[in-house]
Amino acid sequence: MSNLVFQALVPVVLLIFTGYLAGRLGWVGGKSTGDISNIVFLVLAPALLFRTMSNVHLESIDFQPVIAYMSAMGVVFVLVMLKQGFNRRAAVMGLASTFSNTLMIGVPIVGLAFGDAGLVTLFSLVSVHSFIMLTLVTVVLEFVVVAEENRARAAHGESAPLAVRARRMALTVCKAAKGAILHPVPLPIICGLLFAQTGLPLPGVVDKALQLLGSAFAPMALVLVGITLASNAWAKQIRSALTLVIMKNLVHPLALVVIGLAAGLSGLPFKVMVVTASLPIGANVYLFALRYRVAESETSAAVALSTIVGLASMALVMLSVPLLPG
C-alpha cells in the first residue's frame, strides 16, 4: 500500500508544484487563471464526469458509504455550530470543516489510487455532495441573517411581516438548490447516469473525444491548484486557519471511520469515502465566506493551508485505509 500511496501522491505534488512555480514566476496569473478555471470546470470536468457515469447502472452503485459520508459531515458540522454558536461565522466554519475538494484533488487522487471503480464511488458522492451540503448551509446562513436582521429591527422598534421573511427565505433556498443542480459538476453526472440506463453505447468518435478531454482534467486541475496557491496571501492567517485544517483533514475522516464501522461498512467504496473525507477544504467555502462577508481571510488561508497539509494527511489516511475491513 505504501508504494500505491507514493505512486498516487507524488504526481499530485509535482503537478501542484508546477502550477505554483508558473504562478510565482508570473507565467500565468490574473485573467488567465479565470480562463483556465473555466476550461477545467466547464469543459474538461463535464466530459470526464459524463463519460465515467455513462456506463454505470444504478443498481451497481453502493449508496451506503455515501450515506455514511453525509452523516459524518452532518455530525462534524453540528459540533462546530454548537461550539461556535448560531451565527454566520459558525456556519462558514462548519462548512470549512466538512466540505472536501472532491473534484480538483479528489478525482486525481482516487483515480490514481483506486482506478475507475473508485471514481464511480466518488462521483456517486459528488452527485449529491454539493447539492445537500451547500443547500443546507445556505438555509442555515439565511436563518442566521434573518435572525440578525430581526434583532436589529427589534432594537429600533421595527419588524418585517412574517410572510415577507418566509418568502425571502424560500426564494433564497430555491435559488441555492437550483444552482447546486444546474452546475457543471452534478449535472453531467446525472446526465451520464440517465444515459447509462438507456443501455445505448456512446458513438465511438464521441467516446474518444470525451476520453481525450477527460484525461486532461486531472493534470490541468492540479496545475490550477498550484497557480491558485501562488496567488493566495495565506501565510499571515496560518494560526487562525490551523483549527479548520485539523477538523477537515483529520477529524472529518475519523468521524466517518467511526460511523462507517458502526454501520458495518467495508470494501473499496468505504475506503474511497474515507480517503475523500481526508481531502483538503473545497474552494466553495471561500465563496460562501465572501457572499456572507464573514471570515474571508481565515477561510482563504484555510483552503490553502489545508491543501498543503493535505498532502501529508492524505498519505497518512491512505496508509491506514488497508486496516479497514474488506
Automatic annotation (TrEMBL):
<keyword id="KW-1133">Transmembrane helix</keyword>
<keyword id="KW-0813">Transport</keyword>
<dbReference type="GO" id="GO:0055085">
    <property type="term" value="P:transmembrane transport"/>
</dbReference>
<keyword id="KW-1003">Cell membrane</keyword>
<keyword id="KW-0812">Transmembrane</keyword>
<feature type="transmembrane region" description="Helical">
    <location>
        <begin position="94"/>
        <end position="114"/>
    </location>
</feature>
<feature type="transmembrane region" description="Helical">
    <location>
        <begin position="301"/>
        <end position="324"/>
    </location>
</feature>
<feature type="transmembrane region" description="Helical">
    <location>
        <begin position="66"/>
        <end position="82"/>
    </location>
</feature>
<feature type="transmembrane region" description="Helical">
    <location>
        <begin position="216"/>
        <end position="235"/>
    </location>
</feature>
<feature type="transmembrane region" description="Helical">
    <location>
        <begin position="35"/>
        <end position="54"/>
    </location>
</feature>
<feature type="transmembrane region" description="Helical">
    <location>
        <begin position="176"/>
        <end position="196"/>
    </location>
</feature>
<dbReference type="Pfam" id="PF03547">
    <property type="entry name" value="Mem_trans"/>
</dbReference>
<feature type="transmembrane region" description="Helical">
    <location>
        <begin position="120"/>
        <end position="146"/>
    </location>
</feature>
<dbReference type="GO" id="GO:0016020">
    <property type="term" value="C:membrane"/>
</dbReference>
<feature type="transmembrane region" description="Helical">
    <location>
        <begin position="6"/>
        <end position="23"/>
    </location>
</feature>
<feature type="transmembrane region" description="Helical">
    <location>
        <begin position="242"/>
        <end position="264"/>
    </location>
</feature>
<dbReference type="InterPro" id="IPR004776">
    <property type="entry name" value="Mem_transp_PIN-like"/>
</dbReference>
<feature type="transmembrane region" description="Helical">
    <location>
        <begin position="270"/>
        <end position="289"/>
    </location>
</feature>
<keyword id="KW-0472">Membrane</keyword>
<protein>
    <submittedName>
        <fullName>AEC family transporter</fullName>
    </submittedName>
</protein>
